Amino acid sequence: MIQHLVIIGVGLIGGSLARALKASGKVERISGIGRNRQHLERARELGVIDTAHTGFEVVAGADLVVLATPVGCMEALLGKLAPHLGPDTVITDAGSVKTTVVDAARAQLGEEKFPRFVPGHPIAGTERSGVEASFAELFEAHRVVLTPAPETATAAVDTARAMWEATGAEVVQMDAASHDRIFAETSHLPHLLAFALVDCLAQLEDRHEIFEFAAGGFRDFTRIASSDPVMWRDICVANALPLGATLERLQAQLARAARAIQSGDGDWLEDSFARAKAARDGLLPADVLDSTE
Amino acid sequence: MIQHLVIIGVGLIGGSLARALKASGKVERISGIGRNRQHLERARELGVIDTAHTGFEVVAGADLVVLATPVGCMEALLGKLAPHLGPDTVITDAGSVKTTVVDAARAQLGEEKFPRFVPGHPIAGTERSGVEASFAELFEAHRVVLTPAPETATAAVDTARAMWEATGAEVVQMDAASHDRIFAETSHLPHLLAFALVDCLAQLEDRHEIFEFAAGGFRDFTRIASSDPVMWRDICVANALPLGATLERLQAQLARAARAIQSGDGDWLEDSFARAKAARDGLLPADVLDSTE
């Protein structure tokens, strides 16, 4: 049982976490911290959080503090909350990039408090954002990756794990660098591509006609381009090295495809498309293929 | 009422067209032509077609002939069926590229028969293929684009239009070059990107781990990479110029994004992502956003 949970950033992820924990009966009280007083009040009205705060004093009595903000403001927030942390408070986050968040936590929390920071990433979300889009079932049957550092206390990991399991999620562990590389490939790069494609098309003079003839395939392909621009800006900046590396490989692949198109090299195109189809049909887990998220 | 319809290529599109027309009661008899006798027999067993043929003689008595094969074999097929065409038979196709198909039809059908060729493209499909995946409702509330040439007979256009309207589709007209440019942007390029991304990832040593952590966003983004490789090979080759042009713009956009990531230029990334989000949220027609295809 969590007596007092503090969530910093009560949006889609923070709000859904609060709803899920309330539904599970595993939390006594939830305080929300945010910059935008109006958004926070809305979260309180919806019953997602019990009390709304724009300062960090409320952190003092917490068992568990969750950072559910864009990755780019985590270092500053960790610096602000550090002085208020009690001796047993566990801190965790829900950021999509882990190495830079771990470095920030190490710098801001210091030797004494850093072992109680548990880096985490729930593999769940939708293209919508804000507390209004949050729902208690968001994490059910989804994975949460924890990437503890060598110094991280086992008891702190257990606390974070128990919190996520109470939402219905399956918790797995890996090191932060592996996490960042894997998610650069399957999440960050696809988002970057979707944003790039739609931004390209949106700059065309006849964009209205072009979008008018978009079919279902385009809708699915570009759904992630409706995601929050600030959140994704931060992810791209924070995970620059692995993302840059996978983007470079993709650029080489596209350059090769462009040559095949120009020269009418149907064999190369067919081979590449067939490899892709075989990988998607064969390697994607069944739950990802079938779920409607 | 169509007395005798011949469908060449009884796969997802040809099979769904046959099913829809049978359900509408607007067709008396459907003959299917294909290379693969086993697939054709399966279509006949399923009641999708009435008779199965591997030769072109059956075309002689047809009111309407529909080519529903990959674009790359249409020129050869038009050449084979031309000698069998009766004086009033209308020919149409369901190819995703129009300019090259129109050129092929002009060359193969000759001055006398080309006016009865109506270039068409149903904007419907799924990532699955084959007659087993076909269903009568595929075209309902979807658009079909007809791109008649200056020589095309109005009566022939009316026949093709009536056929598609009987499936529940909305028929629109535009010129072939506009069609090819628009669909290069919203369909052909997204397919190429999805294939390229998945092919890239499939070549990584730890592809199993990478695909294991793919979430719903990746599933949606890559759904079109499960499409038929031969069909998409043909589309890329047949629509090489418009596709090459839009791919080049996208490559420039990705190069710009790569520089922003490398230099930590969050402002550029946020601006680009925000433009994309605004375009997708604002410009996509509501039916495309809401439909589940």
Can you offer a commentary on this structure?
2 copies of one chain form a homodimer. With 293 residues, chain A is α/β, with parallel strands linked by helices. Chain A has 2 domains: 2-174, 3-Layer(aba) Sandwich (Rossmann fold), CATH 3.40.50.720; 178-285, 6-phosphogluconate dehydrogenase C-terminal like domain (6-phosphogluconate dehydrogenase C-terminal fold, Orthogonal Bundle), CATH 1.10.3660. Chain A has helices at residues 12-24, 37-45, 74-81, 99-113, 154-166, 176-202, 207-212, 216-222, 229-238, 240-263, 266-283, 286-290, and strands at 2-8, 27-33, 51-53, 64-67, 90-93, 117-118, 120-122, 143-146, 170-173. Chain A has a 6-stranded parallel β-sheet with strand order 3-2-1-4-5-6. A 3-stranded mixed β-sheet of chain A has the order 7-8-9, covered by helices on one side. In chain A, β1, α1 (12-24) and β2 form a beta-alpha-beta unit. The longest helix of chain A is centred in the middle third of the chain and has 27 residues, at 176-202. The two termini of chain A are 28 Å apart. The model of chain A is unreliable at 289-293 (pLDDT under 50). Chains A and B meet through α6, α7, α8, α9 and α10 of A and α6, α7, α8, α9 and α10 of B.
What's the structural blueprint in terms of helices and strands?
The structure is a homodimer of 293-residue chains.
Chain A (H helix, E strand, L loop, with lengths): L1 E7 L3 H13 L2 E7 L3 H9 L5 E3 L10 E4 L6 H8 L8 E4 L5 H15 L3 E2 L1 E3 L20 E4 L7 H13 L3 E4 L2 H27 L4 H6 L3 H7 L6 H10 L1 H24 L2 H18 L2 H5 L3
Helix pairs in contact in A: 3-4, 6-10
